[in-house]
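Q: Predict the bound structure with zinc ion.
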Amino acid sequence: MILALAVATGTLAACTGKAARHASEAQPAAQAVEVPPFEADSAWQYVARQVAFGPRVPNTPAHKACADYLAATLRSFGAEVTEQRADLRAFDGTVLHAVNIIASFRPEAKRRVLLFAHWDCRPWADNDPDPANHTRPVAGANDGASGTGVLLEVARQVGMRLPEVGVDIALFDAEDYGAPSHLSSRNTADSWALGAQHWARHPHVSGYRALYGILLDMVGAPGATFYREQLSDYYASHIVDRVWAQADALGFGAYFIDRPGGAVTDDHLYVNRLAGIPAIDIIQHDPQSPTGFGAYWHTADDDMDHIDRQTLHAVGLTLLHIIYNE
Ligand code: AHN
Ligand code: ZN
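A: Predicted complex:
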């Protein structure tokens, strides 16, 4: 692990400048697009701010306060913001008062890109080695806040200078209320991603279309590796190709591994299957770990100590390059 980190850091330092020179040499001046910076400190603050509310578990005061904060922050960047409220039934019958938050830039544009993440927290740290934590919520620094934090910084940059393409940023709720592992007989795939399932059936704009969608999930751990997720390759391998090539060109090849990872039942499944929008998942995959995710996943360790600015930067800058070159 220490070796992998050293390699990742070295590659970053060595390649960022080289990639920039290479891009300007290869493209004629008329076609060069100026891509805004991605400020990793700012993204880190957006992650910390969410975590400071406490676990954003549906039907809690922290959840409500964070929803208000997310909507107000996106409005302050100049986006048109929809708060899509829905009462969604969880696997155990609990009715979740959910809020999907959708921020639109250039709402009139026909050509659009959808960027999304979940913002809620898992109510149970059911993968924690200590059984006492199995009934306690996760802090969700990585699992929830990291993707949302990166998208807030992307939204801030987009709001300051709009790209040609329309951009929608959807923060989905109730992703992580899937049945806990000790109730594995009820652990049906569809108990996850309830907010995304609702939006995919009832988009915030009727007849909503996007060229493609990109989901961020657990994009903040130090030395995180993102493999080609299987459902993404099934539905939208051309988008996976583009994103992984863009990341590599920016010197982020140590994060974005161009090899297959596992399949993950995540928000993008429903954006593909129910909304018919080709969508991919950028999600941390650790081939060594028994869960396939990072060791912090659904444990009491999913806190700010496991959030790294360089990982946020690799993901955020890659996204900005994708949308400004669209
Ligand atoms: C399942 O474990 C079925 N899906 C993982 C989706 C997820 C949970 N992403 C973050 N937390
Ligand atoms: Zn989770």
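A: Residues 2-324 form a domain with the Aminopeptidase fold (CATH 3.40.630.10).
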